[in-house]
Amino acid sequence: MPLHMTKIAFSAESPADLRAWLESHGDIGEARLTTRYLPKRQEEMVGGSLYWIYEHALIGRSPILGFEQRDDGRWHIRLAPRLISVVTQPKRAHQGWRYLAEQDAPRDLGEGETAGDAMPPAMARELAKLGLV
């Protein structure tokens, strides 16, 4: 079972904005995020995904293609340039990235399926402030 990671969709104004950013990298075959440190468990992440947090909820995932060191010592997280929608799941915000086990990851939405009764973002924010989500 692959290991996944979670990360906030920083500066994305909406899930559609995140999707557009990822897809804009399709011509080079991958989108890249920069991180200071290489995950210690990167070998377990082969076949895993980066799950995106938007407004205190996991909303989608991008398959991880690998990791590549930059000239300045930082690392690129190499991602497939697509956003695969998942069943929305509450997730508290955090800095950087965190590991996510396969059994804790939300399932992908099927063809024509919608997120359904997803919690409204404002409610998720209030519950997160109270430490309930």
TrEMBL record:
It comes from the Bacteria. Pfam families: DUF1489 (PF07370). This is Lysophospholipase.
